[in-house]
Amino acid sequence: MSAQPRRFDGRVAIVTGASGGIGRSIAERLVAEGATVAGCDLEAPAWLAEAGHVARSCDVTREQSVDALVAEVAERFGRVDVLVNNAGLSISAPIAETSLAAWNQILAVNLTGVFLFCRAALPHMQAGADGEKAIVSVASVAGRRPEALIGPYCAAKAGVINFTKTAALELAPHGIRVNALAPDITITEGLMAVAPEGLDERVGLTVPMGRPGHV
Of 8, 115, 117, 153, which one is the catalytic site residue? Predict the structure, then answer.
């Protein structure tokens, strides 16, 4: 087996929602390719600390919490090169049974958190340190192909996609690439906790290979 490429040697990356699922997989890959990774979640991702990287507790919906984490990373390492907005939340419920509190929380975690981290990281990404800079936000096919029973999540992920397009236009002159990923069904602990009935059947209808993704 060939050695893992070290594309991120000397680079500093922030990954939200890094405790498990897609976020942990992204953080693990960045570590394997040489990045210094600062990962956060509501509970600090202990695996990152054990690997000698930065693990912090952070509520992505709270401005003060986000600003403090980004400032700490920038001060400690002198740069921020990569931001991965992965933290996400969903519920499965009909619109008529969705509370305003649930709606607000899902939009806050999935969409407002992306805005807050982008805004906090930008001054440090524009500071002139050498190398490419990139922001990647994890959206969802649900942001482009709406699904019943997850209305707030669909709305939030559609917002992530469009905010990403806006940010890409605004930040391209500064040499910062901005992209979004839109995964289809990916089996994680978080998904299985809220998965609606009929998930297996939907995989067969919408995924060409007839099977979900795994991390």
Answer: 153
